[in-house]
Amino acid sequence: MKRYEQQELYVYNSLTKKKEAFKPIYTGAVGMYVCGPTVYSNVHMGNCRTFLSFDLVFRYFKHLDLKVRYVRNITDAGHLENEGESGDDPILKKARIEKLEPMEVVQKYTVDFHETMAKFNALPPSIEPTATGHILEQIEIISKIISEGYAYEINGSVYFDVNKFDKDHTYGKLSGRNLEDMVSNTRELTAQSEKRNPQDFALWKKAEPQHIMNWSSPWSKGFPGWHLECTAMSTKYLGPQFDIHGGGMDLKFPHHECEIAQAEVTNKKTPVRVWMHTNMLTLNGKKMSKSTGNSILPNELFTGNNTVLSKAFSPTVAKFFMFQAHYRSVLDFSNDALIASEKGYNRLMEAFRSLDHITASESSSFDVEKWRQSCYDAMNDDFNSPILIAQLFEASKYINGLKDGNETISQSDLTTLKKTMHDFIFDVLALVDVASEGAKDGNHLSGAVALLISLRNQARANKDFATSDQIRDQLLEVGIQLKDGKEGTTFSTN
Ligand code: AMP
Ligand code: ZN
pLDDT tens digits for 281-291? Predict the structure, then answer.
């Protein structure tokens, strides 16, 4: 029996504002799309919070034996600053500042994003498509929307007609906004724009001469509007309707609202069953954000190189800190909170490691089966990681009691306890035991250096001093110093 048949998962749907029993369109398989980063700068911890939350979702689905196709795009064109239609393209701006080709900027920050996600032990998505790799698909969708009568061309640009759409669909249902209110708030802007209405959004923009990232289209040499890429790539890889679409709360409007409108016109059905939105990571009570500079970068955290930090923190502690809050709650980043999380994380790892030294007895003084199910219940309740962690601490208390001889456990419960702890800590939360990883690295290193020491001894015995010196000198170059003493050769690292 598959695990998903034994568990009942509920997911909060931002569209209906309710927790709903999660039933994938195709039994046993999940299609999930998450908006990826706009790659013009290093991802900050806020971005990481969103991507790690969806890594948790991805991993829990996999743990439940569901087959998941997880699509997370890279935005490498079209995302203009200030949500405006006349704003700057931040990738082009960065390329000008750094004197790089725009695609060099894209490559540099895509690599940084991947490296950062790997440090956090996050899985790569199943497909990671780029906006620039899907220009043809986007052009096709625009043609379709025009032929359906929901978009108009003006001066080589194409805009989605929100008013027309709102007449026979509902615009604003995800963000809870209504078009009339939006119109009355923005009336004075109409005159400055070529759009018929300030609410209309760009599907295609004619490129100004300095906008060097541009493509040919039936309307002009230009580039697609940001919202369009997600409709094109989600439809292409997950079909006209799929199970889950995610992103940060700040993408609900206008980005996701526009995606719904585009897809409803193109595919004649609403694209997404469940919309999931993560809440913001804040710093000093304000949203972490690239543009305001109110942010902490992952590398600053890993090195301690930021004035808000008293020391360095490992990626796994940072992740543990983030998972101690539910993904739909605001979380404020602080040095004190990280220190507390580090203590908690160490306690949990210590308890897990000591499981190897527990001996079983006749019966258990703790209901391990019930505890196991409560770990699942926590995750089944809209991926409630803080409750899951509280359950892991419950088990740690019990393990400490076992160590002290104040509690007992049967052999079969001990096996269940170990397996469940392992599954949730390493597969679902995907934490890393830094101490034992370090010990493993240490073992590899000492094994390799021992081999080199013995080769050096052989060389010396053969009077091949060139080789023996080469071994010593080259090790020194990589920071490993050999010391010859009475007891033989030892080494130290710097
Ligand atoms: P961007 O690269 O700006 O498109 O953002 C990538 C993802 O990070 C989006 O899903 C955003 O909603 C999310 N995001 C941006 N800032 C924060 C924050 N402070 N906390 C959590 N998620 C964020
Ligand atoms: Zn998107």
Answer: 999 999 999 88
Round to whole Å and give the CA distance between 203 and 143.
10
Q: How many CA atoms lie within 13 A of 253 on its CB side?
A: 13
Is 13's C-beta closer than 6 angstroms to any atom of ligand 1? no
- How many beta carbons lie within 10 A of that of residue 70, not counting itself? 25
Distance from Cα 225 to the centre of ligand 2, integer Å: 11
Q: Which helix (H) or strand (E) holds 206?
A: strand 201-206
Model confidence, pTM? 0.89
Is the Cα torsion angle 404, 406, 411, 414 positive or negative in sign?
negative
Return the ∠ at Cα 401 (arms to 395 and 407), rounded to 5°.
100
pLDDT digits (tens, 9 = 90+) for 8-30: 999 999 999 999 999 999 999 99
Q: Is the pLDDT of residue 437 over 70?
A: no
pLDDT of residue 479: 85
Residue 251 in contact with ligand 1 by CB distance below 6 A: yes
- Distance between CA 71 and CA 235 in Å, rounded? 11
Answer whether 378 contacts ligand 1 (Cβ < 6 A). no
pLDDT, one tens digit per residue, over 157-166 is 999 999 999 9
* Start-to-end C-alpha separation, the chain: 52
Residue-wise pLDDT for 351-372, tens only, equals 999 999 999 999 999 999 999 9
Residue nearest (by alpha carbon) to ligand 1 atom 7: 47
Cis peptide before 209 (omega within 30 of 0): no
| Helix/strand/coil for 287 | strand
Domains of the chain, each with CATH number or no CATH: 24-278 (3.40.50.620), 304-435 (1.10.730), 444-493 (no CATH)
CB 298 within 8 Å of CB 45: yes
DSSP symbol at 252:
I
pLDDT of 440 reads 57
